[in-house]
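Case study.
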Amino acid sequence: MNLITRMMTKSNMIYLGIAALLLILPFFLTGRSVQFMITQIFIFAIFAMSYDLLLGYTGIISFGHAMFFGIGAYTTAIFMDRFDANILGLVLAIGVAVLFAAIVSFIVGILTLRLKSHFYAMLTLAFAGLFLVAAEKWRDLTKGNDGFTFRIPEILRDSTVMYIVSLVCLVLIFFGLRRLTNSPFGRVLVAIRENESRTESLGYKVLHYKVLVSVVAGVVASFAGVLYMLSLRFVNTSVFHTDVTIDVLLMTIIGGVGTLVGPIIGAALIELAHHWISGLANVHWIFERWIILYGTVYILVVIFFPLGIVGTIRAKLSGRSKSNVLEKKRAS
Amino acid sequence: MNNLLKVSKVKANIQQFHILHDINFEVPIGEVTVLLGRNGAGKTTTLRTIMGLNPVHNGSILFKDEEIANLKPHLIANKGIGYVPEDQGIFEDLTVGENLRVAMKREDQETTERLDWILDLFPDLKKFWKKPGGQLSGGQKQMLAIARAYVNENDLLLIDEPSKGLAPIVVEKVMETILQMKEKTTILLVEQNFHMASKIGDRFYIIDDGQTVHNGLMEDLRQDKVLMKKYLGVS
Amino acid sequence: MDLIVTLGVNGLATGMLIFLLAAGLTLIFGLMSVLNFAHGGLFIWGAYAGVWIYTATNSFILAIILAILTGLVLGLVTERLIIRPVYGNHIQQILITLGFMLVLQELIKVVFGPDQKAVDPPAWLASSFQIGDVILIKYRLFIIIVGLLLFFTIFFLLKKTRIGLIVRAGVMNREMVQTLGINIRFVFMAVFMVGAALAALSGVLHAPYSGVIYAEMGLEFSILAFIVVVIGGMGSFTGSLFAALLVGLAQAFMAYYVPALSLAVNMLIMTIVLIFRPQGLFKVKG
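After joint prediction, the assembly is written out as follows.
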């Protein structure tokens, strides 16, 4: 036990060290666009960690995770647009976004998490689709497909400030979720992933745990949506698109499910792909179709390295073959 | 070629467990050979291994003097081996008739004759022809499973514990049928019910802890109380 | 009245196309318990391959043939490379087929170019009949007939032939079927190929119907197929027909009467079904 605690502190030190490095980075990298891109990575890392909570820790697939992201995004945008763009308004927006996301994820969870895995996937997909249509059609509020720009509190308009705020949020949420997944609650989630019926027979109310984790994931995702809006200051319906969910799925799987660090690395890789690889299109046409590369890597990861980058490295380092996360979860 | 099946020095593992260490036996044509032994001794695994459902790690299995070890199950079946698994393997949503039709590779005169013959033995199957297999009683399921293994022109039938879970009166009936089938085909039987085994078996092999430890004629075994007590717990 | 007939015919034609798409998916799920999110990728490949030869030769029959061939070949490849490593594991199936879906969709852009393509029905199906005040477009009737024919053919194959029995038995007890001398791997591969061919056929028939095809239809139609299969009851063949017709008709009528909601109609139906009857309209045992 002592050893484990020491290890933990050691890995925590490493993480904090990396965070500190990232914190001073903007003082050297003053280019707005670079800062903006790294900020985006932080935000998507938060979003992907919330997805990892579902897929990696509990074995739940969601096809509509974008809806929570979108809820956070639209709530912020609408509050900032309609009311004063000050900190108080922002706090209020965050509160409403979080509450709204919690309610929606609770409803979806309670309806389908007792059923087989694909039902949750399909109902989240349906809800996300309904939110997308609502965002397109309720033009008074959302201005439809074109979206709108809005003002945000003065202090957050500086790209360096936004960078630091996002980084701090990422670090806090990372340690918060790590604490959660290392707690008894987290261990029950893993037990559910490994063998749901056995966990149930041990006396755990599996449904309660699954609904609760889906609420936490929804809330964290909506918070990521809030940050996304603050960095972008423009909203349109694309935040509800299935593409957003697929991106976050790719991030989580490629980075490594059930690790929390994996999704952060995955987020960085996918965001870099968006920004840089597509820029190489004039070098070779294949770079414009980077999805093919990513899709192929993703398929290979699912078949051969179901633990993703981080999981595979960890398994190698620790020398023991960790239980194969996805293979274990047999849907029968 | 007196031996239809010759199993020698077979080793088989299921995952990390050694299940079969050293299995040796022969099945002469036209006889009923019985595999005896305690629960968990490896009898069912032996049948599954012959059928190709478990990999063979060592040794050989000759059927009609041809090596069949590690062939795919459907190829082994097509060489002329019928299989009645321990759980009968009835297709529960298919009717009795459909269960039989799945098995019938051809619908020629010979197959029809075999079908008619076996249905005469099991009139219940004819009666419940359109009933889903899952709704049959235990005994009827057993009969359906045996009939299904028989309808194709198989030279050897592997039957795994046909008496398991059946009422004594039903066991008698199953026994009678197997006795009748004995006239037409060679049978390798796994059976815990010694009464049944001794009535229909010609030869026996005792399997203990994954090895064939003893064999002989069934009539000799009936006399040998010591042996029976040692391996079978029958007194 | 005329309006209702016209909308009804439109709805039925849309529904039949959706049925062809969903039929392959529900067969694959019902018979092999495989969740294939790459189904829309097969659909869109059928559409593009068919349209390519249709544009080159002006023969719609050739287009249909090529689409079916494309479906068979892609089905073979998908089953071997993508599905075989993940039999029996739904979560991995969902993840891997979704990835393959994206690859198939992007490959369309590589092979056929990224732009959408306009497609017209063949001349012999382009005209329409007029009965009273009702105008019946030939191409829509053609789709309805093809859909019905395929429904009854597949229904007959499944229920009445030994092949159908083998497939159904293989789903219930794979091992047992093998010990009856049947190569179940081969049978499943064939089922998968047929399912893929149905998706591809749906794609090529859909092209002149919607008038335009584009690569992103792949994911859209994967999702649509799943919605329909969930509504009908996962694995229920008859259920997928009814669900597809329901969705088709609902789309047609909503588009006319409540256009604001027409985009959401599939999602709404599925949400209602998932809430009140999660096993789908046609429950399947097991």
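Observations recorded in class. Strands of chain B lie at 3-14, 17-28, 32-36, 58-63, 66-67, 81-84, 156-160, 186-190, 203-208, 211-217. Chain B has ten helices and ten strands. We will return to this complex in the next lecture.
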